[in-house]
Design brief:
transmembrane (chains A, B), 276 residues, alpha/beta, 17% strand, 7-stranded mixed beta sheet, homodimer, 11-beta-hydroxysteroid dehydrogenase 1 (chains A, B), oxidoreductase (chains A, B), endoplasmic reticulum (chains A, B), 43% helix, Rossmann fold
């Protein structure tokens, strides 16, 4: 399993090989491990995460640190998995670049960079990993957001990148089915989760209780293992939102806006030019 | 009115100033015209289009030719409108870059370039035009596609760019409402239209009769003038598709695939690397 994690511009790719067990067929028992590319850039808690994976039964676990702003690095991570294990059964794409939670300030260059990290690096990793995933009849898990289905205010660049993921991967899923490629694609539509970064970014603005991150992580892995088309988590907020978006779009828009404490948004200065 | 048109990598920006009439209030009567930036690059039929606009009652009409692969050029077109007329009341974003209608071949660089033309140049033009549109309480019309709502096979890069437009502009619409910015945003969800380029690209693969382009063009302008949230054209195919996407997504996926004559798709060779 190759999982990307997001820590602003530095993304950590955690690769682990699951210890073979009786209930996992040999072709599905493989998980992939790598080692740090740039130890100096690694975030302090990565060794603990690896240790925890080993404690929980992984045959081995490693991480690679670098910036997913570069699709070259994204491809390098996949190569690392290939070189180390010669195969891959699950690719979980879960990293995002830093964005702001504010009115759009006209910074086109920020949108471009975010697209590189949140979308193009996903496409690059998928392309690189596909031969291995075809061989293992594996799974691609794309972690997206309810903001990738229904846009909210203050997230225009982020929403654009998350919407793009659905457009790309839903088209690819059709092609896999047509070509009899037995690689599943799961799109995870996450609501408000109590990760440290999400709570820090939006708790002062959103009138909602976040869902637990531990259960969320488990649901992401489960949805990939079960080869689900989509995961809605937490379903109690995500599923009704999606049902409303075409049946009553303007009502839903009003509902979304009423969920924000707009007075707590501090307006950022407008960008000078698009920075292209 | 500033309209972008798509002709592969060369995009033509048609700018016209409507002749003031009794039924249009002064602030809405303004339309904007420019002149060719690079006459050598202009496509042969542009002068005829301009002539037709004048015949139909435009006070003046001009065009600017160049490549929308560059957001710098996109901004230049808006500046041209500003310099010539000092204002703008409608921005119709309707250009797309060349893409293929085929299985995705792993060319990440193609996806990146298409995102630049189909999405980032839209954001750049919107940012540049916004001060003028705020002043005129004008309209932004974003021409998208049913492939920007529900993905089909053979359009992964294109779908990604069209989905991105919805994510970005739906978020921006919320922000305009919150800030009391009286600029409307209309998203045009077009089905299969009988433009020369669309028919050439997909008629051998799609089991569907295309809708007339003349009516489509009129509906696009009407939806912007009426400040509609979304246009579905032709409604007979687009609206039911959108209603099914959350109610019965897997049924809809099967229906979409059955609409293609897959045997007529000629498979392209895989890309060598991502070209970054």
């Amino acid at each position: 399993m190759l999982t990307t994690q997001h820590f602003s511009t530095h993304s950590i790719q955690l690769l682990q090989r699951k210890r073979p067990s009786e209930d996992s067929p040999p072709s599905k028992g493989r998980r992939v491990v790598s080692h740090p590319q740039h130890p100096g850039q690694c975030l302090s808690h990565c060794p603990q995460v690896v240790e925890k994976c080993l404690d929980l039964g992984a045959a081995s676990a490693r991480y690679v640190s670098g910036s997913m702003e570069s699709t070259a690095f994204a491809e390098e991570v996949v190569k690392e998995a290939e070189n180390t294990w010669g195969g891959l059964d699950m690719l979980i794409l879960n990293h995002i670049g830093h964005s702001f939670f504010d009115f759009f300030n006209g910074d086109v260059d920020h949108v471009r960079k975010l697209m590189e990290t949140n979308f193009l690096s996903y496409v690059a990793m998928t392309t690189s990993a596909l031969p291995m995933l075809k061989e293992s009849e594996g799974s691609i898990v794309v972690v997206s957001s309810v903001s990738g289905k229904v846009a909210s205010p203050f997230t225009a660049p982020y929403s654009a990148t998350k919407f793009a993921l659905e457009g790309f991967y839903s088209s690819l899923r059709h092609e896999f089915i047509i070509e009899n490629v037995n690689v599943s694609i799961t799109l995870c539509i996450l609501g408000y989760i109590n990760t440290e970064s999400a709570v820090r970014a939006v708790s002062h603005v959103i009138n909602e209780t976040p869902a637990p991150k531990e259960e969320c992580a488990l649901e992401i892995i489960r949805s990939g293992a079960l080869r689900q088309r989509e995961l809605h988590y937490p379903a109690r907020t995500v599923t009704p939102t999606l049902l409303l978006r075409d049946l009553a779009p303007e009502f839903l828009d009003g509902l979304i806006r009423s969920n924000f404490r707009v007075e707590n948004i501090k307006k950022a200065p407008a960008a000078q030019g698009s920075g292209h």
